[in-house]
Amino acid sequence: MYLKNPFRREKKMGMTFRPAYTSQKEKKPLPRFLKIVIILFLSILILGSLGYVGTAYVENRDQIKASSKKLDGEAMKLHVKARNAFVIDANTGQILGQKNPDQVIGIASQSKMLTAYAVLQAIDDGDYQWDTPVKFTKSSDWSDKDAAMYAHLDVKEGETLTVKELFTAMFTTSANDASLALADFAKKKSESQQEFLERWAKKLGLKDTVWYNAAGQVNDDAFSYKVKSAKKTAENKATPRDLAMLAYQIVKDYPDIKDFYKKRGLVYTPNGEESNLKIKLTEGGKFEQEIASQLNNPKNLTVEGLKTGSTPETGGALTGLIKDQSGHEFITVVSGAGRYTDSKERYQATLDAVSEVLDHYQNQSIDAGQSIPGQKTTKNAWAKGGQVQLVTKEKRTYWIKKSETGKLSFARVKRYNSQSLSDDDTVLSVPANIKASYLTGVSENERNLPLTNKEMVEQLDEGGYRSNWLRFYQS
């Protein structure tokens, strides 16, 4: 049986006519070889453009090239009569001389530098002012202690001194009660003095340190500030390297600290009452009156501070700021220089350490406003003409062994693309071609040579920048 498909369209009978003429020409496919040629041409065009832009990108990045030849500025081994010694450039942190710099030692009153930095920072932050009064508590009242054993002020519980009076007493006479009262005032209410000191040591990157009290007293001699969980003989400890780092931070951030050492006498007035005025001889005053004339100082070095400290175990110690006749400043640390009761030997060892460094090193300085040796101009696509001239923003001094005969050079800046075209901005810093070691925590900007534009340069708009940027191949 035949069944009709219900979905099949019925064919209509008729004829289909195609016109004899049409305006649309039939498209003929391109020959295969022509397609290949076009594809290759477009590929080359695209790859060439990408390559050009890519090369321009690479060529237009900041290009700073250091020399492979470096002069020797590594630290020397010191031979001074002290168990520990350490000397650095106070401005750059370059380590110049060392003797057992990583031995952990008792630091006694050198501990007071940490409280000093914390207080200076708080004043900068506006937490309190120099004239803010601080009340002595029962714990910080050491007026009845033996002054020959425990340096202190004549201030009693309930009396007040200003922050500046306490700071000056702590830093210039090493008054233990001033340091303890100031630390109590500066710390958070929720923390102990020990926690306060540990917090600031961590903040400053002092890794090999141990802290108990702000005065630097042996734990058993700290009285109300004794840490009960610690041994009686426990004491604040650090390495000479840590002490140098602490002193470096103070001098770098607060260079006026040296002015405190110039004070020959401490004047303070409990409760601000002029009728109750008191005077004490400072460490600087004692040095000038009793010690300076006894020292062998052929290079006429100047002692500018910072802090003495000693214990029976560690002997005489001093973290110092020393200046030579050319104005170069050095931070020094000596420990184990004579008996702890002797004042002369720690100063003599300090002067000897700096003298030894000066005998072995020559300094090469670059003053502010100087061109980088061997370089006249530098490319910068943002500048009109695509060129700028860089000069030094600040003075830098580098120390090199006297055995070196070459001239110090610096990394060459071939190009830098920055919109900072003012002569007030530090736009780059370049390293010296020198083999040297620096304190941990000293940034590249602090030890490198900072650069700025010689004069204000006209900055281009985006169009001008792109035009210079694409002319990367031009000199």
TrEMBL record:
Record flagged with keyword Protease: yes
One protein family per Pfam: Peptidase_S11
InterPro entries documented for this protein: Beta-lactam/transpept-like (IPR012338), Beta-lactam_class-A (IPR000871), Peptidase_S11 (IPR018044), Peptidase_S11_N (IPR001967)
Domain Peptidase S11 D-alanyl-D-alanine carboxypeptidase A N-terminal intervals: 77-337
Molecular function terms, GO-annotated: carboxypeptidase activity
Protein family: Belongs to the peptidase S11 family.
Official protein name in the record: D-alanyl-D-alanine carboxypeptidase
Organism of provenance: Fructobacillus papyriferae
